Amino acid sequence: MALIPTTILTGFLGAGKTTLLNRILQEPHGFKIAVIENEFGQENIDNEILVQDGTEQIVEMNNGCICCTVRGDLIVALTALAQRRRDGELQFDHVVIETTGLANPGPVAQTFFIDEEVAADYLVDAIITVVDAKHAMHQLDTYEEAQRQVGFADKLLLSKTDLVSADELKVLTERIKRINPRAAISTIAFGQVAIADVLDLRGFNLNDKLEIDPDFIAAEEHAHNHDHTCDAACDHDGEHEHHHHDHHHGHHSDNIAAFVFKSDRPFNTEKLDEFLGGIVQVFGPRMLRYKGVLWMDGADRKVVFQGVHQIMGTDIGGKWGEDEIRSNKMVFIGQNLPKETFIYGLEQCLV
Ligand SMILES: Nc1nc2c(ncn2[C@@H]2O[C@H](COP(=O)(O)OP(=O)(O)OP(=O)(O)O)[C@@H](O)[C@H]2O)c(=O)[nH]1
Predict the structure, then answer these.
(1) Is the ipTM of this complex over 0.85?
(2) Do 206 and 230 belong together in one domain?
(3) Whose CA is nearest to atom 14 of ligand 1?
(4) CA-to-CA dists, residue 115 to 31, 38, 105, 179, 202, angstroms
């Protein structure tokens, strides 16, 4: 059987990966796509945001980052999908893996070369990296994950160009070209892209990766040696930093941590608006990513809330199901955020 092309979709927190994936899943392109979602933290908010029309197989991988702790789960997910396809249970001709915003795409791509079972069924079609034009300059200055994602890409898609000037876009484009001269760069508005620009690119070039990193294929044994727990509160430092291979292995930037707020009481809309407006004013620069599915008092539809730094927005989501237990769940990912202040403040906004 022909190998199944797989797209590794990366991009820093909030870059626009899910928005792009939603577009891809909605377009009438004739591809049957299986999606593997990897999210930080136990709460999978993206699943609420992703549109599903029933034809896609969506496998969630939560509570860990795909480039570190859940890499074994990725192998299990891929081999199980391939088996179900062989058994005629599932039909798909392409896989898209959406990584967390902090993932290093290198080790994810390695899996396709190092694991024999995966290599027997799949090939890497391309690593696609979404770059948030509004926030990328700062992200590239501050987070090595953002640099790696750009550096390892076969294709770069610049999102949120509506939020920056032509000059800012030019400066950013020049910078990412310096980091990665090989990858083609296009812009995307709210995920809008021609399917030929993202699927079946056959853009992955192993030689390029070996040029960036001669140990690309040889690194697996080190992955075991350097195994460590890298979960939602992924704030370990780079104790292996001085080792040559370590940039493969899930060393995430210091002090980035995620926490979850949950409640089974509804929010008062005015109180919540006021609180979130204030908190974003104060902590916005450190709020890398936040999102949630909210139960607002008196509303019969869910409210999907999300943001990146100071840019926050809400959308009306689906209806609460007849038997569905209404609740709130929110995830905040940030640098040194005062969790107790957030949780206390949010509790005060409940009815
Ligand atoms: N202005 C603007 N906003 C955008 C664009 N693309 C995406 N967004 C918004 O950016 C926010 C983050 O988008 P997502 O697609 O959820 O980002 P993500 O990369 O999946 O985020 P994580 O998975 O949490 O890292 C959402 O509020 C989107 O509506 C764009 O082209 N312009």
Answers:
(1) yes
(2) yes
(3) 16
(4) 26, 19, 16, 29, 20
